[in-house]
Amino acid sequence: MDPTVVSPAPRSPAKRVIPPNPVLSAAVVLGFVGLLFVVEGIDTALGGRLDADGISPRDFTEWDNILWSPLLHGGWDHLVGNAVPLLVLGFLASSGGIKQFLQVTAVIWLTEGLGVWIIGSPGSHIGASGLIFGYLLFLLVRGVFARSAGQIVVALVVCAVYGAVLWGVLPGQPGISWEGHLCGALGGVLAAWGVARDDRRAVAA
Predict the structure, then answer these.
(1) In the 8-state DSSP scheme, what is residue 75?
(2) Are residues 85 and 132 in contact, defined by beta-carbon separation less than 8 angstroms?
(3) pLDDT cut 90: percent of the chain above it
């Protein structure tokens, strides 16, 4: 009689640290950042006219700018400064798979946009830094919700590298949308809670 072999339980998707398909995740994140460079190139050719199409707080005639304000940047320096954190944090945030990554991104995107529209200071709020803060807080919080030691370790490393940017959620430098940073961070916490809740439901089923 053959001996019984017990295979290890499959790793819960909510506890993954590396995306299940790293090449696809990298391609998706690179594609998004590449799109930002294309948009900035178009904006440069138009003399920066797209920068006025950011979020205008409490302006009902331009509420739809919530949908594309993260795609706009105030020049190449602004975009380049956001590109590397987006690549790193976006890749790590896709550890639950592309579908979950898109859902997390949508939650952060809309939470930031609606939050800035409600509490933002006058002006045109643009840039993907709200997504950066959202991914950062998502990574910091999801390990606690999922009770994953691996994710908590990753979160500590991420915090050591990028934690200083969390000061950006406080009012400070003129011209910087701290409201976008704060609301993006809140979106990341909300997304982490939603991912953990869905995983608990899947386990219970």
Answers:
(1) S
(2) yes
(3) 61
Alpha helices in the chain (DSSP H): 22-45, 76-93, 98-119, 129-146, 149-162, 178-204
Cα dihedral: 107, 146, 205, 91 (round 10): 50
Radius of gyration of the chain (CA): 19
- Please write the tens of the pLDDT for every residue from 132-184: 999 989 998 988 887 778 888 888 888 777 766 666 656 666 678 889 999 99
Q: What CA–CA distance (Å, rounded) separates 180 from 70?
A: 10
| Residue in this structure with the two tokens 């950006």, named with its chain if needed | 168
CA dihedral 37, 43, 45, 47 (to 10 degrees): -140
């706009």: which residue's tokens? 72
> Where do we find the tokens 């592309």?
98
Q: Backbone dihedral region of 21: left (phi > 0), alpha (psi from -120 to 50 degrees) or beta? A: beta
Residue 121's φ and ψ, nearest 5 degrees, are: -75, 160
Say which residues have a Cβ less than 8 Å from residue 93's Cβ, sequence separation at least 6. Answer: 101, 104, 105, 135, 138, 139
How far apart CA 102 and CA 15 sit, in angstroms, is 18
According to DSSP, residue 121 is labeled P
DSSP state of 52: G
**137 contacts 64 by C-beta, under 8 angstroms:** no
